[in-house]
Amino acid sequence: MMVTSPVHKVTSPAHKVTSPVNMVTSPVNMVTSTVNMVTSPVNMVTSTVNMVTSTVNMVTSTFNMVTSTVNMVTSPVNMVTSPVNMVTSPVNMVTSTVNMVTSTFNMVTSTVNMVTSPVNMVTSPVNMVTSPVNMVTSTVNMVTSPVNKVTSPVTMGTSPVNKVTSPVTMGTSPAYKVTSPVTMGTSAHKVTSVNKVTSPVTMGTSPVTMGT
User: Fold this and answer.
1) Alpha carbon distance 206, 143 (integer Å)
2) Residue 84 pLDDT
3) Spatial separation of the C-alpha atoms in residues 181 and 197, rounded to whole Å
4) What gap in Å lies between CA 87 and CA 94, rounded to an integer?
5) What angle do CA 114, 119, 122 make, to 5 degrees?
6) CB distance 140 to 41 below 8 Å
């Protein structure tokens, strides 16, 4: 609410710059749309970790503040550098949450400094700015992978397939333990011996009594 009031003051001189700046604002709106796409898996994260939700909600508020400062940036180009430095401070707050995301954000700020110098050249590097934003979305997908590890019922580092679905304990061979008809270490000759089973004479007995 405090940000919206100075933005309305800035819009009056911004009408002079609207012709090239409108071309700049269009990819910025595309950036906000991708940020909304980023927030959707973040909402999935909130269902798992309540402690994450508090910081994520703080991050979303800074994103809204970033968009408002971009409107302030559109009116004078030379003044871009000063609010961009102010933008970096909430980005540093973002770094406490996701370290992998911060590196791409720092790359975005450097390209913004390249944008500030000439207005006519804004359109070409702005397209370059959109590319790391797409890279941000890819890293966010990498961030969502530990969320799947959180929701899994198995502790971190274990394989859910080998631990859950395998019918045999770890290290045993399912073929020798399950499908073999003979117990481990026994000989098949012991079971299928013909001489021992089909002999018509019992072992050790004679048809004639001993000594007769």
Assistant:
1) 84
2) 33
3) 19
4) 11
5) 55
6) yes
Which amino acid, one-letter code, is at 190?
K
DSSP 8-state secondary structure symbol assigned to residue 155: P
In which residue are the tokens 């898996």 written?
A: 41
Name the residue type at position 170.
Answer: M
- CA geometry: angle at 58 spanning 31 and 100, to 5°? 60
Single out the residue of 30, 130, 115, 11 nearest to residue 71, CA to CA: 11
CA 190 to chain CA centroid, Å, is 58
3-class state of residue 42 by DSSP: helix
What is the tally of helices (H) and strands (E) in the chain?
9, 0
In residues, how long is the chain?
A: 212
Q: State the pTM of this model.
A: 0.10
Reported as a single tens digit per residue, the pLDDT across 153-192 is 333 343 433 333 333 334 433 333 333 343 444 344 333 3
